[in-house]
Amino acid sequence: MLAVASVGPAPAEVLAAMEAALDSAFGLPVARLAAIDEPAAAFSPKRGQWSSVAFLEALLARVPPAAARVLGVTERDLFVPVLSFVYGQAQLGGRVAVVSLARLRPEFHGLPGAPAALARRAATEAVHEVGHTFGLVHCADRRCPMSLSIDLPDLDGKTATPCPACRAMLAGSREMRLARLTVEGGRS
Q: What global pTM score does this model have?
């Protein structure tokens, strides 16, 4: 099972779009967990942003036994020390990932709100970050959700459906086989 949890508040319709994209991309059941508290120590007053690493640590402490992966979703603007911001971050080959909705929102960039654009961007970014947890790295296919996005035009050019090469890597990955075995074992 893949699990999605808001870290602090997050819009239900955006969470639903992310869950649908994850189900479609990975073929694993998706469940929504109860919201968890934001890690207060994650805030950097100097940067005015929140540490994505602290969010990953908070999520790692909350992984249910039945979950192969947990995706956290936050409204907070996230950073890692070497970058000015991140749309999300994941443990490569690990169990947790986080997506920030802050910079996915048109309003962040001084534009009118667009709920459909936010949901589409969040769904694509969810697949991207969870893909990293299954061992996928950045893809050269610019339409693949696993390609690197450094700005919104990059992100808006992608779909939430992994390209054939990334789907093949997923199908052959040890992590995906283990996740499927866990799901199948739970159904017996």
A: 0.94
Q: Do the Cβ atoms of 158 and 143 come closer than 8 Å?
A: yes
87: CATH: 3.40.390.10
Asked if 75 contacts 103 with a C-beta cutoff of 8 angstroms, the reply is no
Which residues are known catalytic residues?
A: 129
| 3 state SS of 6 | strand
**187 assigned to some structural domain:** no
What are 135's two structure tokens?
């061992």
- Residue 79 located in a structural domain: yes
Query: Residue 75 sits in which domain range?
Result: 2-182
* pLDDT, averaged in runs of 10, over the chain (188 residues): 96 98 96 95 96 96 93 97 95 96 95 95 98 96 96 95 96 80 61
